[in-house]
Amino acid sequence: MCGIIGYIGKRDVVSLVVDGLRRLEYRGYDSAGIAYFLKGEIQLKRSVGKLSSLEAILPRNPSDGVSGIGHTRWATHGKPSEDNAHPHRAGTLVMVHNGIIENYLSLKKKLQDEGRVFTSDTDSEVIIHLVDSFYQKGLSLEVSVQKAVMQMHGSYAICILSKDAPDELVAVRSGCPLVVGVGESEYFVASDIPAFLSHTRNVIYLEDGEMVLFSPNGLEICDFKGARLVKEQHQISWDPVMAEKGGYRHFMQKEIHEQPRAIVDTIRGHVAQEAGEVLLAGTEEIGQWMENCQRIVIIGCGTSWHAALVGKFLLEEIAKIPVEVDIASEFRYRDPHLVKGDWVIGISQSGETADTLAAIKEAKTKGIPTLSICNVVGSSLSRETDAVFYTHAGPEISVASTKAFTTQLTALTLLAIYLGRRRGHLSEKAGKQLIHQLFLIPKQIEEVLAHEDRVADIARNFFRYRDFLYLGRGILYPVALEGALKLKEISYIHAEGYPAGEMKHGPIALIDENMPVVVLALKDKVYEKIVSNVMEVKARGGVVIAFAEEGDTELAPLVDEICFIPKVVSALSPILMTIPLQLLAYHVSVSRGSDVDQPRNLAKSVTVE
Ligand code: AGP
Questions:
Q1: For residue 26, how far is its CA from the centre of ligand 1 (angstroms)?
Q2: Is the pTM of this model over 0.85?
């Protein structure tokens, strides 16, 4: 985890680095720090807590130099404290690090035996001491870094400055994201593009095993052996204002409201409506290979795993392909049985989730073709897989995933229609109907969003409860899981998602007037069953908040609160049903005064195990 940034150029170093860190805070915010030059000396400022604490201790006009590095931390080794905050210093060098050095204890022991003194509990500090141990022998910074990384096991993106060369900066990538921004006589290097997007749209993606050297002569990229590489420069099309709050109180609220647009963008270019066909624009050949696959295994973490669970319903029902779903962190360690004819799909908003990346690599070592469903263009996952289906949700800043989830569901629906048509299990007529319904979804989401006040009222009635149970059946069961995850991560209320039919096998013992039960009920084939579940809850004195479809007069008198969504076909109901659950979690969190966009202990992109 953690966000890092380096800048080299003639503008105000400190404000550019701090501004970049602000856009990287979603990656962690336990502490922040910055290093810059003043009168030829490296100044180090670090502070526990959010970036605002760091800003509060920065002097006026702090720097007269041309380079600086910064860090926003998500603690792994060592509690949040000033000593554990980055940058770390050794000799004349300072460094920021994102990742984990797995063999840090043995490296630290060796370096301590050589007389080096450590001031933090972090794994990161060994990196700079190790580099310095070579640098002190008279090797160049470039060669010192290369020699150090040869001894390091784990994942890292690192930026290093030396007091001896204030106009130089070295950055290295192995297993953690790092992107170079190329401006007019200035350069950025950062964990993610929004860190510098308001300054340049020209980027170079670094791969694992690559390092970049910035100097007054420009930049050079090389591998860990020093061999120079020629890399392509890409242009980013995102609008920087897309990454701002746009008038909403929180990024999460803005991102919930962006879903109609995000879904339209995700569908765009993929549909031939008249023919009832989906076109996998940009990934056609992959689609053709996939057409004959025997089984699909979908992996992901958190919300992306919930999308995978919905994907199983969609692909099995529409395309008649057997699907297995696995949590990426489980998949990677259980020696999964994969055979010829299998396909593995990795779902990830960020494309940087360490467990998902490792799971995809595991599939690849077994010779299994891979596809990613990913939001961040050029992310590690998108480059690791044989093909990628981009969900054009745009930058998602709030830690709680919202538009990424519904665009993942959109992508899975498109894939299911594509494969269903090509495998002959979805007729032209049925394909057309489903595509027609999909086109209606953005409008229907707007209708749900128009009733935000109603959901906010419910939230105000229930925000003091300590436990919630979410029940759904069939394709809405993963939506119940997602609703519960949203609530717990941003309001710190204990919430459990459960398949409603399982309630009687245990959770029913929990039911009383202190645990509201959120029930997802559509008039589908399990409607009668879910009504029975509502009755079971009510019979035990439980409180029911129902989300049902317009025109459902049967459920209203049975429950305590009810909120309606437009009528929708079962396959698309997860997209629509998710919206009020996001709003519920959002407004509960606001009522509790929680930090909606940056909930405690979490980070947007989990780039460590
Ligand atoms: C979602 O609200 C969570 N913050 C989290 O579960 C997230 O979905 C998970 O960490 C996976 O991230 P990814 O989609 O970027 O891989």
A1: 12
A2: no
